[in-house]
Amino acid sequence: MKTAVCPGSFDPVTFGHLDIIRRAAGMFDRVIVAVMTNAAKQPMFTKEERVEFLRRATAGLDNVEIDSFEGLLADYARQKNATVIVKGLRAMSDFEYEFQMALTNRRLNPETETAFLTTTAEHMYLSSSLVKQVAEFGGDITGFVPDGIIEDIMNKVSKAGQAAAARE
Ligand code: PNS
Fold it and tell me: For 57-83, what is each residue's pLDDT tens digit?
C-alpha cells in the first residue's frame, strides 16, 4: 500500500490545494493531508479550524485522511510509513523554497521522496494569503475556496477586523 503525505499550512485550504489533493488521491492508495506549522507564517485559523475546513472540503474522497502534526515533516512521514511527500508547485517563485525543503527532508529521511505536481493554470495565481486579503477587504472569495467554508472564513475575518479596530 502506497501512502503519500500532502503537507501544508492550509490557512485556509483553497481550490489550488484541493486540485493537488484530488490528483494525489488518484495516484496513491492512501493520502494523508497533514496540517503543519510553517515557522515563517503566523496563521489566521487555528489548527482545529484548518483541519475542519479540510475535512469538509475532502468529504467525498475515500482514500484521503486529514491529520495535524507538530514537528518535523520528515519524522511525520516516517511515522506514517509514507513513501512520498506530495507538494504542489505553482510557479518559479515556489521553486527555490520547495527545492530547499525537499533536499532537507531527504537528508532527514532518505526513505521518503518528495514529488511535485504542477498546479493547473487555472489555480496558478491562487494562494491562502490572497484569499485572506480579499476576505479582509470584504471581497467575494467564491471560486477561491469551497462554498462550505466561505461563511466561516468571513466570520473569522470580520472578528479579527473588529478586534483590531477595538485595539486602535
Ligand atoms: O503550505 P506551506 O506553508 O508552504 O507548508 C509548509 C510546511 C508546513 C509543509 C513546512 O513548513 C513544514 O514542513 N513544516 C513542518 C516542520 C518542518 O519539517 N520544517 C522543516 C522543513 S524542511
Answer: 999 999 999 999 999 999 999 999 999
90 is catalytic: yes
d(Cα 25, Cα 22) in Å, to the nearest integer?
Answer: 5
Whether pTM exceeds 0.90: yes
Question: What is the Cα–Cα distance from 14 to 8, expressed in whole angstroms?
Answer: 11
Give the up-direction half-sphere exposure of residue 125: CA atoms within 13 A in the CB hemisphere.
5
Q: Is 41 in the pocket of ligand 1 (CB under 6 A)?
A: yes
Amino acid at 144: F
* CA–CA distance, 39 with 87 (Å, rounded to integer): 17
Strand ranges, E, within the chain: 3-8, 30-35, 64-68, 84-89, 113-118
- 123 noted as active-site residue: no
On whether the CB atoms of residues 37 and 11 are closer than 8 A, the answer is no
- Give the integer Cα–Cα distance in Å for 116 and 110: 17
